[in-house]
């Protein structure tokens, strides 16, 4: 088996990375939806390699995307949440959260810059959420040759042309269009155009297609909604409009894969499908895991992941090895340059993809020194209070800063995280707390300690 460095010297593959927004673990057919239809994503899962323990590095959008784009955990770049960090009822927040950074700092290398310096033509289409081109923090300043629609927006200004909100803010690069045009379809068309322009050029290409779907607002073309209104609802999934949004996302995957095939470049193009964080409950139901977007439980950061790497991945191969979206930077740097930068936190997962290894032994960490209000009870409760968590093998520990309490779960026996074992396995709690504190010191993670003067108790 060729090493990554030697492989890269022989053949530089095109890379297409499709990032869904808020797509839950069970929101596709191949991951068990009983209502949504995703034949194109399912087909890709049959052609590529499926990871059943794939994680985002944060439970909501901006920090997850910053980690993905930089290959670094949240303490390295300071994007811990979608600002502000002090969300929710201030009288219920015991601690003052750590200040949050909104844009990815200019001194932090990006995946776009990695591909660019290795001779790639780089295109960004869709949601950036890490800055803006006007001040040098957008895609065009971070290694991308083309940027369509990428700016600070975390929520789409509108899902319909002219893609503007009521304040007159519009997604860039989408000025020309037709009434009724749907954002997911338009972004797909822009991505197809980039692929066509790049397919037979002198340079290989890297396309980052970052959809806004299926993020709120929940809206979709009525013709597709009508289809699901007539369909028998599932036990877990019942929302016809959300189902229609999922279908438009799936159609996008089908069109991207289709144009790659029709241009004759499928043997030289890596296709990756992923989501930035877990599904947003109660809009959807992440029924095989606990919780959803923004929460410290598996539903917050377990996501679908498919990798189709020609001549490397085996069709239909399934891996249960835990992987994280910070791993992509390390993997591609090793593939392109034969090394992994000391500043990176991810690992090279090529040995998993090529079946050289079936597992990689390491711990995964999440750090959230902020507050995030609940989607239910009018936002009076919280999806998350300040915590750090670790997954080490089958064990997961969540350490909460307000009262220094913990939750311990055996994910092999208890994937729904129903049984907190902190009180019955104090030895494992002690082991994992030491891992957390050691990691905090290693990455210089800031932790909240100052008391909130407005706190009135729970």
UniProtKB/TrEMBL annotation:
The conversion to 3-oxoalanine (also known as C-formylglycine, FGly), of a serine or cysteine residue in prokaryotes and of a cysteine residue in eukaryotes, is critical for catalytic activity. This is DUF4976 domain-containing protein. Coiled coil: none annotated. One of its GO terms (molecular function) is arylsulfatase activity. Residues 14-332 form the Sulfatase N-terminal domain. SUPFAM superfamilies: Alkaline phosphatase-like. InterPro entries: Alkaline_phosphatase_core_sf, Sulfatase, Sulfatase_N. Belongs to the sulfatase family. Keywords: Calcium, Hydrolase, Metal-binding, Signal. The modification 3-oxoalanine (Ser) is found at residue 61. CDD domains: ARS_like (cd16144). It holds the Pfam family Sulfatase. Its cofactor is Ca(2+).
